[in-house]
UniProtKB/TrEMBL annotation:
This is Siderophore biosynthesis protein, IucA/IucC family. Gene3D superfamilies: 1.10.510.40, AcsD, thumb domain, helical bundle, AscD, thumb domain, four stranded beta-sheet. Residues 407-567 form the Aerobactin siderophore biosynthesis IucA/IucC-like C-terminal domain. PANTHER family: L-2,3-DIAMINOPROPANOATE--CITRATE LIGASE. Coiled coil: none annotated. InterPro entries: Aerobactin_biosyn_IucA/IucC_N, IucA/IucC-like_C, LucA/IucC-like, PvsD/AcsD-like_thumb_beta, PvsD/AcsD-like_thumb_helix. One of its GO terms (molecular function) is acid-amino acid ligase activity. One of its GO terms (biological process) is siderophore biosynthetic process. Belongs to the IucA/IucC family. It comes from the Bacteria. Residues 153-376 form the Aerobactin siderophore biosynthesis IucA/IucC N-terminal domain. Pfam families: FhuF, IucA_IucC.
Length: 586
């Protein structure tokens, strides 16, 4: 076989993709497995470390594996939650062997070996490899979207090459060709037209607001209905669709109309001239879930928008600066008259679209919104993306970087926690305020002054506040999909807000400064303590302020065990709040 020599640039990209895959795998493994079992040290002082790690700057991370073998590697920063950034390859030492470096594939096999469910290892290993290869592709083709640079929202939506920092497969997209990846992925600045069908109007169904005017605006013609480019081959191969096409009720027209931009969720599309985002079905597994719009999710999103209308209005007074993004419409095709219930449901889900209200042009211009995940991550140069915003804020306020960091984080955390906890404890509404669901807006000094939470798919209701009779008008399956018991509700909100979101925010805003990190957690502790009385001193919040552990969703184990995201387990993390304030908030 002839080997083609790779250029230095290609080797660099390979190294960056490998480094990030290793970073994700080991951070997941440390948080969900090694640290809770006492099998890892974040400051390893073993006398027989690899020569390359003995005198280098940074902390040596040591991990003991089940068979007594060991891993060691260097981190240039660690957090109180055990979050690390690694700056060396992982070195492995087996019984009677010397140290040797591992690549991501070798590391994955090694970490999975002692875990339950070996019959499932193959699928996860394939997805880890898929994520690695796709990351490498995105690094090769990453570029800014070709649009108005003042559209900070779009820049942040399409600037997330790395993805979820604590997921084993952050960029996996099963079954998608490289050509389709490059045509439709936000990480490469894609924009593309939808694929359209001319449809007998009697087959189009919508709930909530009528979206047909919006579809006409995009298509440039009436009575057309779209699907995502990644879904069209599935639709055209569907037997029920073929039967309806043969009857002349459905005609495939191909791609046309306004080119839309994929956002960070990949399947949700944006255009600055449109009043709504469009969230499409794609039968592609992204990270943990196949991203189709289940039929009951079409019902529940619109139902939630109606049910939460009074809350959305009330938030403007009770939690100024905090808002939910409504999803007032859903649409699909109903072919039930031409096939079985199962056949029609498949088509309903393939063609399902949810419509999320966009921020208006004035708000985008005034608040310069950005997706939180795009701020609390690394740039392609390895710098925390939020640092430029904190530096700008320091200049505007006339304070040093550390003081600006404290004020910046306090402003953001106050909005995020105030709104999320108010919704949970006062209204029994369980939001998912994780990094990808959170938008930030800024004032003239660069401080966060607005937070929007999006994606009602993940929003649930606590039965004590929302008994079945309040939801009696909904389909039984839809109603069941909306309910979360109080314990699960608290764990989901606490994880999303405090671990996934603010945990990463603190890690990146502190920028490796341990004293500043402690200060930032103290600010969060003070904010939570101040929330207790206004919220009626709920037990879960009281216990958290007293030192109860933080719940951290188990992304690694959920993917390994092939669980539905709703059934994900939680690891108990040491509480950084009480450690930061030394008992002051008890």
């Amino acid at each position: 076989m002839i080997r083609v020599a790779r250029s230095p640039h290609e080797r660099t990209l390979d190294g960056e993709a490998q480094r990030h895959a290793i970073d994700c795998l080991l951070n997941c493994y440390l948080r969900e497995y090694a640290l809770p079992r006492g099998e890892a040290s974040l400051d390893c002082q073993a006398p027989d470390l690899p020569m390359g790690l003995r005198h280098a700057e940074g902390r040596c991370i040591g991990i003991r594996l089940a068979d007594g073998s060991r891993l060691a590697l260097l981190a240039d920063r660690t957090s109180v939650l055990g979050r690390c950034r690694f700056v060396s390859p992982p070195y492995f030492k087996g019984h009677g062997q010397g140290w040797r470096p591992l690549d991501a594939a070798e590391l994955a096999r090694l970490l999975l070996a002692p875990m339950n469910g070996p019959e499932r290892h193959g699928e996860l290993l394939e997805q880890i490899d898929n994520s690695l290869r796709i990351t490498r592709t995105f690094l090769t083709h990453a570029r800014a979207a070709n649009h108005d640079p003042a559209d900070t929202l779009l820049h942040s939506e399409q600037g997330q090459v790395w993805g979820h920092a604590l997921h084993p497969t952050p960029k996996s997209r099963d079954g998608v060709s490289e050509a389709d990846l490059l045509a439709c992925s936000p990480e490469v600045g894609a924009q593309f037209p939808l694929h359209w069908f001319r449809v007998d109007p009697a087959l189009i169904r919508h709930q909530g607001d009528d979206p047909r005017g919006l579809l006409t605006q995009i298509a440039g013609a009436d009575h057309l209905y779209p699907c995502h480019p990644w879904e069209v081959s599935r639709v055209l191969a569907d037997p029920l669709v073929q039967r309806v096409r043969d009857l002349g009720l459905l005609e495939y027209l191909g791609p046309q109309g306004l080119a839309l931009y994929p956002t960070s969720s990949v399947r949700t599309l944006y255009h600055p001239a449109l009043s709504h985002f469009l969230k499409f079905s794609i039968h592609v597994r992204l990270t943990n879930c196949v991203r189709k719009n289940a039929w009951y999710e079409l019902d529940s999103a619109v139902a939630l928008t109606r049910l939460l209308g009074p809350l959305m209005s009330e938030l403007g007074d009770s939690q100024p600066g905090f808002a939910l993004m409504p999803e007032p419409a859903a649409s699909t095709l109903d072919l039930s008259a031409y096939g079985s219930v199962e056949e029609a449901r498949e088509v309903t889900e393939c063609f399902g679209i949810l419509y999320r209200q966009n921020l208006d042009e004035a708000s985008r211009a005034r608040y310069q919104p950005r997706v939180a995940m795009a701020l609390f991550t690394w740039t392609l140069d390895g710098i925390s993306a939020c640092q430029s915003l904190v530096t700008h804020c320091a200049a505007q306020l006339g304070v040093d970087q550390a003081e600006a960091a404290v004020r910046w984080l306090r402003a953001y955390a106050g909005l995020l926690l105030g709104g999320s906890l108010h919704c949970l404890f006062r209204h029994g509404v369980v939001l998912e305020p994780h990094l990808q669901n959170t938008l930030l807006g800024f004032d003239a000094q660069g401080l966060p002054c607005r937070v929007w939470i999006r994606d009602l798919e993940g929003t649930k209701l606590v039965p004590e506040h929302w008994p079945a009779e309040r939801l009696a008008h909904l389909d039984e399956r839809t109603r069941a999909s909306l309910h979360y018991d109080a314990d699960k509700a608290w764990k989901r909100v606490a994880y999303c807000a405090l671990v996934n979101n603010l945990g990463e925010a603190v890690f990146h805003v502190a920028n490796g400064d341990a004293a500043l990190e402690k200060r930032l957690w103290r600010e969060i502790a003070d904010l939570l303590e101040a929330q207790r009385a206004p919220l009626g001193d709920p037990q879960a919040l009281r216990e958290l302020c007293a030192g109860a552990p933080l719940p951290s969703k188990e992304n690694f184990m959920t993917r390994l065990l092939m669980k539905a995201d709703r059934e994900a387990g939680y690891t108990a993390l040491p509480n950084p709040l009480t450690a930061a304030c030394c008992g002051e908030c008890r």
